[in-house]
Amino acid sequence: MSSTELPSAPATANVLPKVATVRVAEGERLRSVGLPGITLTVRSRPPAREGLPPALYVHGLGGSSQNWSALMEQLEGDVDCEAVDLPGFGDSPPPDDGDYSITAHARAVIRYLDASGRGPVHLFGNSLGGAVTTRVAAVRPDLVRTLTLVSPALPEIRVQRTAVPTALLAVPGVTALFTRFTRGWTAEQRVRGVMHLCYGDPGRVTPEGFRNAVEEMERRQQLPYFWDAMTRSARGLVNAYTLGGQHALWRQAERVLAPTLLIYGGRDQLVGYRMCRRAARTFRDSRLLSLPDAGHVAMMEYPEVVARACRELLAEAEAGEPVAVGRGADGAGVRSAAAGEDEAVTENAGS
């Protein structure tokens, strides 16, 4: 494994950097890691003290390691944080073989963990990254200490109407049609659309956060492989939904041994909130945090609330004893919290 420190644009930059650089928040570092067939960009924060357990964060479709910056800052005193840009996303170039399947993304995560020797890690995944990390935890339990899934993209029989356009990216020809149709859209328009789709309340995004997202959108649109990575990854996710037998994602979720924290948003327009119950029943050692006001990226909307739940999971894992949360009829720990509240209200998982 080869590793190279990457140049990065300062957080206060007013001029858009060249394509080769990305925004890095204060206290973060980027490095490029060469592995067989792939090169990954890894974002990290120095731990608050030596000896903290390692954690790895995996983003969703169209996202990047930046999606985890807020939560990484919250947890820097609890874990040694690293977030990876999947191949073709963020600042990671496309994979050599052009494979963007869920299995290929999971293989990239496994290769990095094997090469770095950081496992077992506290593994985090959002959306597509949730499907990827579920597969990693199922096939390589030795690499995963705990698993935290934020709106994981696991198969749904009835897909929400608001999620259909994203799924359509997997259909041949649709991406080319969409890019022609939206050719005149500005980066600001695209970012507003993404935020309305992914946030429960887009108004929670600060003006600075919006400007940073626009700069990142402008940077990504300059990449020649931007739409190809999006399209092929969407297709890989849809294909994963059709797999049966031991490769089926829900079957693999049943095989996960690691203590698992499930986080779902009541205003999620991409992953059905109703799926939280099935997930809580399927993952054998699960606890569920329900955030009625959150959308698809709860770790970006409510990082403090998510961090509290993560700390409980970490404490449980270190102590080897279950956290005292409510248990439903199926045995799954469940909490429902208003995003602004300090105390969670216990629900019954069987209701």
Automatic annotation (TrEMBL):
Keyword Manganese assigned: no
One GO-annotated biological process of the protein: acylglycerol catabolic process
Keywords: Hydrolase
Residue ranges, compositional bias (Low complexity): 325-339
Pfam families, A to Z: Abhydrolase_1 (PF00561)
Residues annotated as signal peptide: none
UniProt protein name: Hydrolase
